[in-house]
Amino acid sequence: MSTRFTKTVPVMRTLMLGGLAVAATALVALAPSSRAEEAAEAKPAAEKHAAAKTAKARKPAAPPAQNPAAPGEPGLLPFTPAEVTASPPGAIDITSDETMEWHNDQLAAVARGHVIVTRGEDTLHCDTLVVYYRKANDGSTEMYRMAADGQVVMTSPSQQAFGDHGVYDVDQDVTVLTGDHLHLVTRSDTVYARDTLEYWKQQQLLVARGNAIAINDKGDRIRADVLVGIMEENAAKQLEMTRMDAKGNVLIVTPKDVARGSEGTYNVKTRIAILTGDVKLTQGQNQVNGHRAEVNNATGVSRMLPDETVKGGRVHSVLIPKKSDQPAAPAPAAPPAGGANPPGGGAQP
Question: Secretion signal: which residues (predicted)?
Answer without folding.
Answer: 1-31
